[in-house]
Amino acid sequence: MEFETITSESMFQGKILDVYKDTIRFANGHEAVREIIRHRGAAAVVPLTENGEVILVEQFRYAVQKDTLEIPAGLIETGEEPLTCAKRELEEETGYRAGEVEFLFDFYSSPGYCTEKISIYLAKNLIPSQQHLDDDEFVTIQSYPLEDAIEMIREGKITDGKTIAALMAVYATEK
Fold first, then answer.
1. Is residue 127 helix, strand or coil?
2. Residue 142 banded pLDDT, cuts 50, 70, 90
3. Domains of the chain by residue range
4. Separation CA 90–CA 69 (nearest Å)
């Protein structure tokens, strides 16, 4: 679709995201305002043990005011490759390193208003290491057979979008 950005006004500059109000003009001459969240992106990883269990992190998420079960994930640092971020987050959050990491897919978390792209990886041949949590991270490590994790999605016990997409992709390929 052809359009032209007429104005782009910064509304908020934050630690993890920036908010802009853009005025755009379509090829037919119609103008519209779009509120956009610009995000630097993230990477996430499904740690899969040799006996077919997935390692998830349980953590309190302030925005939704509840504990969530998620795959390890984090923001991509400036200049960092998504694969490097995924490996870093795996070790920081779970205390495991991966002997093998496979890229699964990229997706946009909410492309109607946000630029956040998340790169998803599968980690196998896990090697015990050392957990390195940030000062504001409080996580509990949980492991579940992959089939049980899929059932937890159906039961509404796993509600995080990236985790659902990643687990379903792994389930489809590992079966």
1. strand
2. very high
3. 3-38, 41-174
4. 15
Query: Does 89 carry a binding-site annotation?
Result: yes
Class of the 41-174 domain? alpha beta
Is the C-alpha dihedral spanning 132, 91, 38, 59 positive or negative?
Answer: negative
How confident is the model over 128-132, as a mean pLDDT? 87
- Say if residue 58 carries a ligand binding annotation: no
Rounded to 10 degrees, the C-alpha dihedral 105/110/114/116 comes to -20
Residue 93 marked as a ligand binder: yes
Q: Which residues pair with 51 in a beta bridge?
A: none
50 annotated to a ligand binding site: no
Greatest extent of the chain over all pairs of C-alpha atoms, in Å: 59
List the alpha helices (DSSP H) in 3-160.
82-94, 146-154
For residue range 32-47, what is the model confidence (pLDDT) as tens digits?
999 999 999 999 999 9
Q: Identify the H or E element spanning 129.
A: none
